[in-house]
Amino acid sequence: MPIGQHLFRSTALVTGAGRGIGLGIATALAKAGFQVALTDIDEDSAARSASLLGDQGYPTLAMKLDVTQADAWAHAVGEVTARWGGLDLLVNNAGISPRGTIESTDEALWDRTLAINLKGPWLGIKASLPSLQRRQGTIVNIGSTRATRPMPGLFSYVTSKAGLLGLTRQVAVETLGQGVTCNMVAPGWVDTPGERLIQAEQGRPDFPQGVSNLTTPEDVGGAVVFLASPAGRKVNGIILYLDSGLHVADDAGMVYLPDEQSVRYHQPIANPFTPPSEPRS
Question: At the top level of CATH, which class does the domain 7-242 belong to?
């Protein structure tokens, strides 16, 4: 059954779904008619979020999943297929975004970042592919603008997300003709509990103050729903940016310094088509 037809029967597995972007994705999918398996390394958060959706009448399943372990993936996919008969959509969302330069990143941090952000999606795709092939399903990897626009101080993270884009395209090529699609959704700045903790550790306890045009978890969820819909099934092997133009326009007007006369990276440019006396929006 191609995904998008009879959505009430379609089944999705979302990693890192206990909170933040993952929960936003799971919520959007549930509202679109999917049965959703919410998985997370934090089993309690997955259970709380699944219960929240279940209380609203949406069919859900909560599971602990360490995405770096092949056996854990086999168990999770087996549970989903046993409960709901198959899998139509895999969303690889679980990830970490540690700070560190090429000099300050040690082997332990490098290995952990690549294991979660890149090895995890590969293991998930490998475990899920037989079911996705049977149901002509789809894979959505949650990446980042930083996959193609590096930023200083995010050494292992940027490398892992660039690798995830390569994985996305390679899977799309290898599954051509099987009815399976694979794409990456790339948010820019997203206000999540995890990001707030990271920013606080970096001396920004006021985050997201000073950042505009934020992407929301709900925005990411909407993009995933689209890619899994009939309208999105012709999209394959692409990176879909959800970053207000960050990947093409420096900060895309997202980061500003309230006490300065300029925004980060560049001076404000007046709109030549706006009369000086007319206020700009």
Answer: alpha beta
